[in-house]
Amino acid sequence: MTVSPRLGMAPTAQRIEVTLETLLDSVDLAENIVMRVAEASGFDEDDVHKIGMAVREGVINAYNYGNQHDRRKKIHLTIELEPQRMIVHVVDQGRGFVLTEVPDPLAEENLLRTSGRGLFLMRAFMDELSVRPAAAGGAELIMAKKLPQTVSDNGRRQPE
Amino acid sequence: MALQGTCREVGEVAVVDFSGKITLGEGSAALRKTVRDLIDRGHRKILLNLADVDYIDSSGIGELVSAYTAVRTVSGEMKLLQLTRRVHDILQITRLFTVFDVQSDEDTAVRSFR
């Protein structure tokens, strides 16, 4: 794992970049990192859990479907803290996919499928979810959740 | 915590008390093995007690569905008992409450098997 925090890019923005190996352990690692950031950002216990789980599902997606367990490939996790929201990017090195082409797991005919619920859970637990082709190929999942409090220019949290 | 499962029999019903997380990797594999072993030993009435399972991810959900299907394939029944709030919420938003028979009381659950 490689971590490169870049603080102070914008007056109140913070950015953490982590390069993860394509390993099962990376799923737990990514979840733990994001939960710690979310907790420090003022999210309550339920939201910390939801953000952690959404990112977990994103990294599972990268591990299973994007990189297809290929240990030569990497998973890039980026956490951005903006004044109003937390944004998480999960980038794999697979072939990419189109969000609208993913089957609806709530459709009657898909209820007994044993996979295909990860993207649904990400969308359910975050405020925004999108997918775009990554710059170097693969898929970039982008998910965001509104911060519970606003952050002032001096970095201190203030109630909304 | 990795998933632990303890099996006991209440009449004809095999009750499995699980504790830990049902997640990608060991948790999902433990659930799969436990249910497959029960089927192989001839059990057709299986009750999964999830009272001490506080976390399930999409892989774990898939494994529950797979276990349910495997039991149904041998003309058996699988039910769930005592969901924690988070597992309950996940099954609710994924519409799996419409698939699984979820019970809150063990005696009632045991009697509900045909």
What does this structure look like?
- The complex is a heterodimer of chains A (about 160) and B (about 110).
- Chain A has 3 helices and 8 strands; from the N terminus they run ββααββαββββ.
- Chain A is of the alpha+beta class and about 160 residues long.
- In chain A, the strands form 2 sheets. In chain A, strands 1-2-3-4-6-5 form a 6-stranded antiparallel β-sheet, covered by helices on one side.
- In chain A, strand 3 (about 75-80) and strand 4 (about 85-90) form a beta hairpin.
- In chain A, helix 1 (about 25-40) packs antiparallel against helix 2 (about 45-65) and helix 2 runs antiparallel to helix 3 (about 120-125).
- The N and C termini of chain A lie far apart (about 35 Å).
- Chain B is an alpha/beta fold.
- Chain B has a single domain, classed as Transcription Regulator spoIIAA (2-Layer Sandwich).
- In chain B, about 45% of the residues are buried.
- The interface of A and B includes residues 27 and 117 of A.
Helix/strand layout:
The complex is a heterodimer of chains A (160) and B (114).
Chain A: E1 2-7, E2 14-21, H1 24-40, H2 45-66, E3 74-81, E4 85-91, H3 118-125, E5 128-133, E6 139-146, E7 150-151, E8 157-158
Antiparallel strand pairs in A: 1-2, 2-3, 3-4, 4-6, 5-6, 7-8
Helix pairs in contact in A: 1-2, 2-3
Chain B: E1 4-10, E2 13-22, H1 26-40, E3 45-56, H2 58-73, E4 77-81, H3 85-93, E5 101-103, H4 106-112
Parallel strand pairs in B: 2-3, 3-4, 4-5
Antiparallel strand pairs in B: 1-2
Helix pairs in contact in B: 1-2
